[in-house]
Amino acid sequence: MFVARSIAADHKDLIHDVSYDFHGRRMATCSSDQSVKVWDKSENGEWHCTASWKTHSGSVWRVTWAHPEFGQVLASCSFDRTAAVWEEIVGESNDKQRGLSHWIKRTTLVDSRTSVTDVKFAPKHMGLMLTTCSADGVVRIYEAPDVMNLSQWSLQHEISCKLSCSCISWNPSSSRAHPAMFAVGSDDSNVTYGGKVQIYEYNENTRKYAKAETLMTVTDAVHDIAFAPNLGRSFHVLAIATKDVRIFKLVPMRKESTSTGPTKFEVQIVAQFDNHNSQVWRVSWNITSTLLASSGDDGCVRLWKANYMDNWKCTGILKGDGSPLTGSSGQPTAMSTVVGSSVQTSQNALNGMSAGRIGKRAPFAPPLRQLTSPKINQHPAYY
Amino acid sequence: MEEVDVEPAVTNIPAASSGTHLGFAWGPGDILVYETLYKASGTGSGDIHEVRKDEDIYSPILRKLFNESHHIFVGLQTIREDLPSKNKKPQFVSISKNYRSVIRACMEELQQVSILLAIELIWNLCEVLFIDAAPAGSLLLHLLDWVRLHKADVDEKAREVLQSESPAEHRDYWDVPGGTQTLTEFDVKWRHWHEEVDRCLQDNSFASNKHLELICKILVGDEDTLLEHKDLLSTWYHFLVTRLLFCHPTVKPTELHYYAQSCLTMFLDSRSVPEPLDSILLAAFEFDIHQVIKDCSIALNNWWFVAHLTDLLDHCKLLQSHNLHFGSNLREFLLLEYASGLFTHHSLWQLAVDYFDHCPEFGRVYLELQIERVPLDTERKALKVLRICEQRQMSEQVRSICKIMAMRALRNNRLGSALSWSIRAKDAAFATLISERFLQDYCARGTFSDLDLIDNLGPAMLLSDRLTFLGKYREFHKLYGEKRFREASKLLLSLMTAKIAPRSFWMTLLTDALPLLEQKEVSHHIVRYAVYGQVLSL
Lengths: 383, 538
What we know:
The complex is a heterodimer.
Chain A lengths: L1 E7 L6 E6 L5 E6 L3 E7 L5 E8 L5 E6 L7 E6 L4 E7 L3 H5 L4 E8 L6 E6 L7 E6 L3 E6 L10 E7 L4 E6 L10 E6 L10 E7 L4 E8 L8 E4 L8 E6 L3 E8 L12 E9 L6 E6 L5 E6 L3 E7 L5 E9 L26 H5 L32
Antiparallel strand pairs in A: 2-3, 3-4, 4-5, 6-7, 7-8, 8-9, 10-11, 11-12, 12-13, 14-15, 15-16, 16-17, 18-19, 19-20, 20-21, 22-23, 23-24, 24-25
Chain B lengths: L8 E5 L7 E6 L4 E6 L10 E6 L7 H18 L7 H25 L5 H17 L6 H17 L1 H9 L2 H5 L11 H20 L7 H10 L3 H6 L7 H12 L8 H12 L8 H10 L3 H11 L4 H12 L2 H5 L4 H17 L5 H9 L5 H9 L7 H13 L3 H17 L3 H11 L2 H18 L5 H5 L9 H17 L3 H13 L8 H12 L8 H12 L1
Antiparallel strand pairs in B: 2-3, 3-4
Helix pairs in contact in B: 1-2, 1-14, 1-17, 2-3, 3-4, 3-12, 4-10, 7-8, 10-11, 11-12, 12-13, 13-14, 14-16, 16-17, 16-18, 17-18, 19-20, 20-21, 21-22, 22-24, 24-25, 25-26, 26-27
């Protein structure tokens, strides 16, 4: 892997979240500087900041995009105990020429009495629904019944999880085979309080969410949680960022026809990685759920992949090098240029290959002269 | 089978300071990485870095490889299953050669020797050993071709030197096995000849001519002599084939690995470590297809090669006999990986669709997930994506894409476009909403926009009541404009009585009726209008 491009984010303080939109052409960033910025990717791949505005009166923890079926809509949540919904207004023509757009606040959700730690839109087949969780241990689900009027949101559900909440994740599956479901993680560090991950499921009869499962084996603070895209499987896969990276499989057990309670699950642990050797703060799946990324206290991002035998392995590490921008060859490089990736790029010179991508795998080509090559260190296509 | 322990590659992210955390966000084809701190305290700002896999999909030359191999792939999938295998084998060999010729065509364009050379080398060997499955006798000839082809690619100069001792010369020395004689006959003859030459060497018959003596030593495959001339045989597999040629020309496929291993060992000096390519070739000589695929997956960071080769081997039914239930899963796994990689490219994603189509277990769901994410930059592109979804009855994706386009049009106040996308999405609610807008527009401005669209709604009009009303109301205006007052009035009345008119519009309808009442043909409608007006006032 290599750094293809670097973007000067220009926030005045720490960036807490970066979120791509659905099509990968726009991104939103939020920061302790209380603002959100929206960036658009041009045809040549360059990012331009098209909007930047103050959103809250405290650090903004997360920012997230609604599905484009609902238009251009963002939600943010903050230390200031609120969450907000923003909509892009199609601007004046001279604004467009200057590449600017305007976002206006459609609503502020003020129900939380403490910092709002996460905000997520529910899967689109449920309509336009927004979920927040707070340090006060409450999960709130809001709905906008009229998608053309984003200033009207009603609080549909208020769920008390009893422990301080740090993260939520909806099961993205729209299959009719199972009801809507989300997971909540708690960063409460008292291990005697039991399971720090709770799974809630919607009940058609009571029209309420009920707790279906608590993962009792997760006793340490949970910082992030992520359901994997479903891929038509009958079971669910959930990744958790806690003192290590854990991947769980939740297999729904067959329901009795008379049973009206939530589904019972068989919970299996699929993988557990402590390579970060420290707290893991974020986990997130790629679109096809073939890769999981995690970020830890060790300052690294690790990529995890399962081979076709379902064995999980770390297939890449992104590591902050804690030094000013220099290429690994020791030459200083300008911003926004291709920076060499791993330290083994000097291989290219040895075999007289071109600097193109192909050349980077030079050690593998048949020898022109008799060279010995070290073990392949390029990013392997792990199968 | 042993798991090769490969260390994960480390990529350095330029960070302004140490001790920070790295945040990340998955994107299509890349991952954004930025400095942050997950504990609340601390300040700082920084850059966002776009991190990507080294990927060949951005290479214009390899694009040709991807395009042409896609064509071959699709052709391979459509070979009829019910043909007897002896008819299929030549087809498979031909397909294998097609793939290889595509590789060679790309090699020609890439000026320098590259990974493609290694790929072609391995593929060629796999074709000889697995697909063509050359038996003893012709096996060696195939291997000779293999080595010679490769040599020609790599080293012009070496070829010149080689020609002076070219196997071809010697090949003419005796009849080609399988031509006019059986393998056994050939073997006997060859052994006889070999003994002759050996005896001559022992007798020192050639002592006077060192050069001739050297040649003879080579001809009998004298190991030491061959090893002395190692530098002419730049690789151990060339050494292997040469040695086989002179020592065991009737080598059987099953004996190959023994010779291969010993040649590799002899050829490398004690300090050398076998390279990945060597292990792969060795695994091929051992007929361990699974190991070949696995080693290639690890050594190459592009899925193209393993995906296409495995697919071909699977069609030859070589994976199934070799490995149990995961034979076809492996094929699908690799194809899915390859195709997913293509999907992030702005034009190659269309090739990926065919690959997903031929992955029976997960192809469809992978396609559904990924095709939704294709950016709908232009209407043309959106229509292209839609066509693909419609062809596969991916109705939810069709609906979603149309809805996205409709929403986008509505936000930009392009009501006609929004309406036509809503109709295509069969989204009644949205169609109602947009019809309302049209009607509001009419009330405000007195005219309709997008008349063409509304006039030509056809049966689509029935999607929603409001849309029907819109269409019919516009029709009323047309009739009035054409002075067909009787029909206009009839239509207007039916609109009132059918109750599809929105409440907000009733006054407008009555007002529309007023000028009509002045027309003689319509006067008998007065009573009905009056009744309607009474109903309204209640």
